[in-house]
Amino acid sequence: MTARPAEPGSAAGVSTAEPVIVAALGEIPLGEGRAYAVGDAMVAVFRLRDGSVRAVSAVCPHRGGPLADGQIDRSVVLCPLHLNAFDLTTGCSLSGQPDLTVYPVAVDDQDRVVVSPPVLSPPVPSPVPSPGD
Hints:
Blueprint: E1 20-24, E2 32-38, E3 41-47, E4 53-57, E5 71-72, E6 76-78, E7 85-87, E8 105-107, E9 112-115
């Protein structure tokens, strides 16, 4: 695999960008996170205590806090600035903030952490008004 910047997807729900090797697994201690550039985005990669890895947007949507420095448990990261909580699997805010982008992440056979661009959901069409509205 080669490290390349993310490219826009060519079709709805599909990304044509290459995965990016961001680090050796050993560079991320258990129970901690680190921030990496993936294309034009900053991505926080977390190594959970069970050894699994998760990757989400590195910047808190509330006030720009560094999520890679946040406290984590089995499934949640807390922003270190104002303790906003986000699910590490879905990116969903648990405290009323906008959701985070989730990045597919894996560990390859050489123990390198590989982050892929997010798969973008197809746009939701606007409802067409019915006659008489």
